[in-house]
Amino acid sequence: MEKIDRLKCSLSAVTEQLLNQQVGMEGRSSAHYLAMASWCDVQGYKRAAEFLYHHAEEERTHMLKLFRYINDTGGHAMHPEITEIQHDFQSFRQVFEQVLAHEVKVTRAIHQLVDHCLICKDFTTFNFLQWFVAEQLEEETLARRAVELFDVIGEEGIGRYTIDKELGALKEEDAK
Ligand code: OFO
Fold this sequence. Notes:
By secondary structure, this protein is mainly alpha-helical. It has one domain (2-175): Ferritin, core subunit, four-helix bundle (Ferritin, Up-down Bundle). The chain contains 6 helices and no strands. α2 (13-43) packs antiparallel against α3 (46-72), α2 packs antiparallel against α4 (92-119) and α3 (46-72) packs parallel to α6. The longest helix is centred in the N-terminal third of the chain and has 31 residues, at 13-43. The protein is elongated and about 65 Å long. The protein binds hydroxy diiron-OXO moiety (OFO). Hydroxy diiron-OXO moiety binds next to α2, α3, α4 and α5. Hydroxy diiron-OXO moiety (OFO) binds next to α2, α3, α4 and α5.
């Protein structure tokens, strides 16, 4: 019986589970960035907040892309439970350091998923995941540039104000 059920699905049970784990990761990314956006907003870093609101939305589209792929290939996409969201941050800089650390973690997870697809010769999912490989390169680069602003501009005087402004410009570039 289980065998017939699996025939309806072009994903192996393991691949389906791993893709659902990635759905969870993207969903959590979206929630984390939304919480960061809110913190920046209430601290007065309005452009950084816009950067992060936009990023939170992007992560949700990543989650939905995986969601639809799982269901299109006959699997069952599951909405993740999202708990333990960090709402407070030590500093403006810490927010963006955490974004970078998180993006590096997501890249590793995507690469592991790609590696799994190669090992089990699931070339369809391998092909689907190439979009995420390219996207992670962009996201890591963007997050690195955001952290660099703190070093290049410095936080003294009107430093944080200028960094906030530059984050707004980075967001505009990213949205193009
Ligand atoms: Fe979904 O790309 Fe960032 O995490």
